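Re: folding output
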Amino acid sequence: MIKDQLAALLTAALEEAKNAGDLPLEAVPPVTLEMPRSREHGDWATSVALSLASATKMKPRDIAAKIVARLPVGDGSPIARADIAGPGFINLTLRPDWLGDILRRIGAEGDAYGRSDAGGGKKVLVEFVSTNPNGPITVAGGRNAAIGDVLCSLLEAVGCQVTREYYVNDALNSAQMNNFGRSVFVRYREILGHPLPWTADAPDWFYAGDYIADVARNVEAMYGTAYEDADIDDPETVARFREMSESGMIAQQKADLEAFGVRFDVWFHESTLHKDGRVQVAVETLKARGYTYEKDGALWFRTTAFPELGDDKDRVIVRADGAPTYIAGDAAYHKDKLDRADKALNIWGADHAGYVARTKAAVAAMGYDPARVDVLLYQLVHIMKNGEEVKSSKRKGNVLELKSDLIDEVGRDAARFFYLMRSPNSDLLIDVDLAKKTEKDNPVYYVQYAHARIIQAVDKAREERGVAVPRAAETDLSLLTEETEADLIKKLSEFPDEVRLAAQDYAPQRLTQYARDRAAVFHGFYDAGNRNPALRVVCEDEPTMRARLVLVNATRLVLRNVLTLLGLSAPDRM
């Protein structure tokens, strides 16, 4: 894209100046470019000269002059003019026909516009959501699902081979899952007419959510009174109810995620790591490599052998009773991941931050490069309704479920968009009332309405003037001289960079921000036509109308591409 071309030209000019001895640099730094707010400052600007002042002991304007002197300007170059402004900014004005080049490229590439091979075919395994199979997908889990799903799409868009994976935490020694089975058993007996086995407060292990009763009703429907006289303290009873409850809950989780547009390539069960001995292999590997020791009857993993990874104390990996801890299973799982992929990306809630250092230490101790494991942490989700925050607690029973409490309320598109509006490392507030509005202050409506407006304009040109969208390569695009037109094309030109950076930085919020910005520029362009008939898409001058049809169709293609990456629909009517 044009931004990459300009960065390459500036980098080459810096290299020439360094090699000629005009700039005392050891190495040429990366060049960044921004669009100036005012058109009088050109199409693109860079502050690279200011950033080099300290290293070169030169005035920024003198540095800028050395760079500008070596920039190709005029015939054969995309740069029509290069100016030095203020304390040392370099402002670049492009040749007039570069705008047409952008539209011709979008028209030629269509659905592929924005895609690249920047990922180089790397195999990336993305593990996300991974909610314990003891409850439905909550609104918090929905944020994980939205982030993970869009990051997978972004990584695929830059040429990575992506595996979407869900890790089912069903280890046989899981206290949480055993308590889940016991809770379902208690509810099952309650359905059969037996009161709860306590008269005051429920014990800490009991899950009181309404969904527990739903699971119990499913068990009763399948097995009737077959387990009515079973003993809650019998391990076989707990295991049986846990197994029956898990399978039903996983089926519900899959259905809820599909309703959200999220599907997985692999559902990986933690229990398989224990059953086939891979957990023991991981433990023996750590032993053999000298990273374990015994103390108080337990086996400890020496995570502090890797101080650069940040863990502050060693961890028990096998308890005194011989049961492996969570870190043992996690070590085995990450070994399995790295045997299947070049990169493992984990998307975890912020409450799992303490597991990052010990997981990377386990990877390093087994002989893998810990840089091959990335962890993206996301913060809390708050739901606002009727001006008040809605609280939730799985233990207290008022669980906020992704499907019934959000998707069914605001729709899949709005839910996904709102989840992705902020950086994962920021707390998120979803205003349900705003998400349901069909007005421009609802951001997802505002973006999708831009797509619908384009369809209306294209239909109007065909129905009233008999003119369909022409091919960009066969249209005189030099007629697009209005400032609103240039602003729109510039915004379209940024899309490939936005996709690449969003994938590179694991920053899906860049897409929602780009979509909002691009929609705002389009609405500004369209509204200018409502105020001035000469600026309308369907105007009196047919050559100009044809050029504008190419422009709005390119906008439609880019908007559809970004909505597709976000997993949203691109409606023709609103």
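--- second protein (sequence, then structure) ---
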Amino acid sequence: MTAREGDKMNEERSPYAGRWVAIVRGRVIAQGGTPEQALLAAQSSRYKEKPEIIFMPAPFALPPLIERIKDILPPGQELYLVGGAVRDLLTSRLSPDFDFALPSNGISLARKIANALKADFLVLDDERDTARVVVTNKDGSRTFLDFASYRGETLEQDLRARDFTINAIAYNLQDDTLIDPTEGGSDIRAKVIRACSPNSFTDDPIRVLRGVRQAAGFGYTIEKSTREWMKQAAGQVGSVSPERLRDEIFKILNGPRASASIRALEMLSALDHLMPELIKMKGVEQSPPHVYDVWTHTLAALDHLDQILSALRVGYDAKNTNDMFTGLLTLRLGRYREKFARHFSEPLNIDRPHRSLLFFAALYHDVCKPETKTTDENGRVRFFDHEIKGAEVVAERARSFNLSNDEVERLRVIVKHHMRFHNFASRLEGEKQTPSRKAIYRFFRDSGKAGIDLILLALADMRSTRASELTTEAWTAYLDVARILLENYWEKPEEVVAPPRLLDGNALIKELSLTPGPRIGKLLEAIRENQAAGKIETREQALAFAREEMEKAS
């Protein structure tokens, strides 16, 4: 064969990258996702000829960690990288976790890999011969490597029992070939989510959520039959453990198009079995300046929150926006991009992003509007104390999902105080009155680090409230309040947000000859408020103030 003939054959084979092909006299005559499929396809058209079956390499590079595992494997050890990690390799994504399948001894091999990598090891399921290796990376993040024996007698049975065809592809670490019995590679190219079988969702109802998440995350469409099977299985979602439901929901909220995913779960009737309290918001009308009902407003808030966080991320180019309000946002708050990044890099739980927790709060911020709805004599709709009651509802749901105490408290604080920013902005817009130093102090005293989340949620809440009717004047008032709060929190914390303590309780008791009791704490807090307001600067002034307060009370 000449070099020119070889080049021509390579050009002809390029469309088959990642596929098994049958070759007769140097030409591809059939293809398949497995060697057997390629052979059967060839025999159906060229049954008298004996083709050569070869694999056409896929153009991707393995992550360094997988290369290390290949080097660690004992000679002749059969091992396949499976699931989402293979899908991500084929779509040029970097997977955070890796699943491996092998004929047997999954726990034993996992232990050997863990020892070689000096990583943590734990058994996940003795009965299914499944174990996990946890690799702690230099930045403190963790990579999970799960090893499991086949679910079925063969690799193909294992793959066909998985959720979606795009996740049912295996990479052979021994010879660098792919095994794709359900044509997942074709569905990846067509951008389609297709179930491996009609039983996929009854076998594991969590796949309903996973299908919605992956469709949104990859920008894929869900195939019609698959969508119908998801809807039929939606009622079984409640049988899934709270931890698995929580993990999928938080992945949805941390991914792209979170609002579209939540709406899809609603349309599939899955939301009724996940977070039924949310459904009550549908169709609950609101008075101006609201332009949407409560449910539509909530989903719009998720969209605007996503846009706001995107515009405030490090590296965002404001020239790329054609939205005037986003442009104003970047002008006023863009200086804090790195500080926002640090804020969101500090999760309250290492396994769940801070960002998804804020989106969970946004999803619940108006959850109690339906039960607090009243209409006054002028026909104006009101929702008195909806934020107070909503704080307890979101906390209850968070506890049911087994979130940590810190996460529960953060959600409760965000929902409880989400109206305070609106009150600041309303006074600035209507009365030209900016928040006082004492008001700023109280805002962050009650919210702490959640104050940053409250600011971002308020901006998204405002945009979804007025939508196309939002004016430049109103938006500017919101941005001005945000700028004032952020300046004080990040640039002048010791002046207003957290002034240094000039006295402690023991000093007050000694200097004023007081007895211990609740009034000591009230005096100390009053001193701090006046420090924040700029009225107290020294220990002597603090003592004088305390004496005056005691005289007034006597």
